[in-house]
Amino acid sequence: MIGGTGLEAVALLDLRTESIATPYGKVTVEIGRFEAHDELIVFMSRHGKGHTVPPHLVNYRANIWALKELGVRKIIATAAVGSLSSRLQLGDIVLLDQFLDFTKSRPQTFYEGGGQGVLHVDMTEPYCRSVQAVIREAGESIGVPLQGGAAYVCTEGPRFETPAEIRMYQILGGECVGMTSVPEVVLARECGMCYATIAMVTNEAAGIADHPLTHQEVVESLQAAGKKAAGLIQETFRILRHEQDCRCQMANAEVGKF
Ligand code: HPA
C-alpha cells in the first residue's frame, strides 16, 4: 500500500518498521498483518511523515524497488486529485484508468540501457484490472460508490496548474489531475507488479473552482473522503486474492532482470 497525501498510516497488527537499501537510496516502510490474514502488508508513505517530500522529489525508483525486494506483488496506491470534469464531484472516490503524463524531471525507468537493457514497457492498461476488480467488489460490499474509467493528468508540481493548463488538459480528455501517479505506476509495471490507484477528489481544478487552490483545502477535503477510502482499503485487504486475470507479471518478460 502506498499512502498518498492524507494517508500516512493504516491499522496493521504486529507492526514493525523496516529500512531497505536500494540502488537508489534507503527506504523506510511499515510491515504488518491485516486482521486474521497471514499475508503481510507493507505500508509506505509516499510523501513521508508530515508531508515532507514534494511530488517531484519523491524517490519513486527507490520506493518501487524496495517493494519489489520485499516480495510485494500487488500495490494499492492512494492519491488526492483535482477534478476537471462535472462527472467527478468533491469527495468522490475514483479508480484511475489511464494517464496523461506531463511530468518533466523524473527518472521514469529502471532500464537505463547498457547492462540494464532497454524495455519499452506496455502501457495499454496502465492500472491493473484484477486489483481494480477487487476494489470495485469491496466498494459494492460496503456500499461505497466508485467512479471508474478516469483519465488522470500527472503534472510536475509542486505548483498547482493555471486555468489555461486545465482547459488544455480538458481538451485532451483529462478528467482529474494530480502530481504523483507517474512514474510510480510505470515503475511498478516494469517490475511486474500489479498496481491500482484509489483517487479521492479533493477539489475542483484551478479556474473551475471560484477561489485560489491551497494544500489546506486538499487536506481538509481528505478528512471526509479519506474515511470512505480507509473503509474501502480495509475491505479490499479482506477480499484480495491471488488469482488474477491481468498480464502485469509478464510486463518485463521481453527483457527480464528486475
Ligand atoms: N492539481 C494537482 N494535484 C492535485 C490537485 C490539483 O488540483 N488536487 C490534489 N492534488
Automatic annotation (TrEMBL):
Q: What's in the misc comment field? A: Although this enzyme belongs to the family of MTA phosphorylases based on sequence homology, it has been shown that conserved amino acid substitutions in the substrate binding pocket convert the substrate specificity of this enzyme from 6-aminopurines to 6-oxopurines.
In this chain the Nucleoside phosphorylase domain maps to 2-236
| Family to which the UniProt record says this protein belongs | Belongs to the PNP/MTAP phosphorylase family. MTAP subfamily.
Q: Residues that bind phosphate, according to the entry?
A: T5, R46, H47, T180
List, alphabetically, the CDD domains matched.
MTAP_SsMTAPII_like_MTIP
Q: What does this protein do?
A: Purine nucleoside phosphorylase which is highly specific for 6-oxopurine nucleosides. Cleaves guanosine or inosine to respective bases and sugar-1-phosphate molecules. Involved in purine salvage.
* UniProt keyword Chaperone, yes or no: no
Q: What is its EC number?
A: 2.4.2.1
Q: Which Pfam families match?
A: PNP_UDP_1
Biological-process GO terms, alphabetical: L-methionine salvage from methylthioadenosine; purine ribonucleoside salvage
Locate the residues binding substrate: M179, N203, E204, A205
The family database entries (SUPFAM superfamilies) matched by this protein are listed as: Purine and uridine phosphorylases (SSF53167)
Q: Disulfide bond: is it a keyword of this entry?
A: no
Alphabetical GO CC annotations of the entry are:
cytosol
Protein keywords: Glycosyltransferase, Purine salvage, Transferase
- The identity of this protein, by name, is Probable 6-oxopurine nucleoside phosphorylase
* Organism of this sequence: Desulfitobacterium hafniense
Oligomer and partners: Homohexamer. Dimer of a homotrimer.
